[in-house]
Structures are given as C-alpha cells and as structure tokens.
Amino acid sequence: MSIAIAIDGPAGAGKSTIARLAAKELGFIYVDTGALYRTIGLAATRRGLTADDQAAVIAMLPSIKVELAFNEKQEQIVLLDDEDVSGLIRTPEISMMASAVSAIPEVRAFLLDLQRNMAHTDNVIMDGRDIGTVVLPDAKIKIFLSASPECRARRRYDELIEKGMDVKYEDILSDVIARDYADSHREIAPLMPAADAIMVDTSGEDLETSVNKLLQIMRDHI
User: Fold this and answer.
1) Residue 29, helix vs strand vs coil
2) What angle do helix axes 33-46 and 92-101 make, rounded to 10 degrees?
3) CB 92, CB 167: distance < 8 Å
4) At residue 198, what are phi and psi to the nearest 5 degrees?
5) DSSP, residue by residue, 66-88
6) What is the domain count for the chain?
7) Cα dist. 66→24, 60, 88, 155 in Å?
8) What is the pLDDT of residue 118?
9) How many secondary structure helices (H) and strands (E) does the chain include?
10) What pLDDT was estimated at residue 92?
11) Cβ neighbours for 133, distance < 8 A, ≥ 6 positions apart
C-alpha cells in the first residue's frame, strides 16, 4: 500500500524545496500541487483573463491540458499543453492569479483526480494549501509548514534575484501578505492546518536544518 505525506502551508514557506529534497532522500515521488494552480493561472493570464473572470476561467478548462512529468534529470516539471512552463509560473503576478483561480471550485475539481491518482499509485510527498484537509485527508503524515511573512518574502526575493528578475523586497512582502489573506479567507478549501497536522515553523532556519527537521518527523511516523 502506498504512503502519502501531506505538507501544507502558506506561500513562500519553503514547502516545495523542502518536500522535493525530502522526497529524494526517502525515495518518494514529489508532487508540487501549487505548480498546477500556477499553471492554470498562467493559462488564464495568457488569454488576457483577470482574477474576476471566473466564468471565463471555467470555460477555458476543457481546452487546456495540465500534466506533471519528469525531465532528464528526474526533476518534476509542469506541462501546459505539452509546453514546459516550470520557469514561467514563479512570478508574483502568476502567484496572485494562482491564488485567485484556486478559489474556483471547478478549477479544484479539474485538478483533484490528477493529484489523488498519483497518491494512490506511488509513495508521494505532496505539498499545497489543502492537501491534508481536502485532497488527501487520509494521508499517513500531515505537516503544516510555516514561517514569518518577512522570512518568506526574503526567501522568495533572493530566489527571484538569483534568477535575474528585477523585483523589490517590499513588493514581494506585500504580495506574500495579500496572498496569505486571500488563501486563508477563501470560501473553498481555505488555507488551514488539518486537525491532526504536525505544526512546523522554519523562521530563521537554513534549508538544511529545515529539511532535516521534516525528515526526522517523517521517519518517526512512517
């Protein structure tokens, strides 16, 4: 029987990086569900849609194909209509659009089976906003990972600067705070820890410390 580990938490908490490294260490498949919603957001943006165009976003869904795959380095990539868009979905603009489209029930339903099917067939570490509460409520281990808004904004800022993007820390912090509010106050699957989730705060910790902390939790409960 496959083992599913759910990691939830706010934007910029390090879920994707930590989950990916932990999955590699444990020999699990890493599933970045946030990338799926970002990809829907990218598809909507390319069509000139805005966060208020819910009907248009819903109408768009049958015409697009979203997939998770692995490149030659065995790194997870996300495909939009067979195009690798992994590097195009990490901007603040797409982050906010992802938050908006993820509040649309039809979008969540569109992606739900894809996420659950992966957990049913393989040992997975899956991260997102509602994995432990909605997507995989029976996950073997549920972790709610967080850090202060300032810490998360600094991490995202450094990441984007390293990629050569022209961004300001103050803008990133503002986006983080806005997305926290939007994610936690939406009517559909709001960001919140599962009742049985293990709470982990990584504020002020480096990546290695954070990864080792989560690996210890996982090994203790598998």
Assistant:
1) strand
2) 100
3) yes
4) -90, 125
5) EEEEE-TTS-EEEEETTEE-TTT
6) 1
7) 23, 12, 14, 27
8) 84
9) 8, 8
10) 84
11) 8, 189, 192, 193, 194
C-alpha–C-alpha distance, residues 3 and 122, integer Å: 7
* Residues of the chain with confidence (pLDDT) below 70: none
Domain of residue 15 covers 4-221
The CATH number of the domain holding residue 24 is: 3.40.50.300
11 Rama sector, left if φ>0, alpha if ψ -120 to 50, beta otherwise: beta
- Based on the number of CB atoms within 10 Å of its own CB, is 57 exposed (0-12), middle (13-18) or buried (19 or more)? buried
Phi, then psi, of 218 in degrees rounded to 5: -65, -45
Residue carrying structure tokens 């705060």: 201
| pLDDT confidence of residue 190 | 86
Give the model's pLDDT for residue 3.
Answer: 95
Strands 141-146 and 4-8: parallel
- Report the pLDDT value the prediction gives residue 124, as an integer from 0 to 100: 93
The verdict on pTM exceeding 0.70 is yes
Instruction: For the beta carbon of residue 92, count every other beta carbon within 10 angstroms.
Output: 19
Q: What is the DSSP letter of 28?
A: P
Q: Are 111 and 36 in contact (CB under 8 A)?
A: yes
- Rounded Cα distance, 11 and 149, in Å: 9
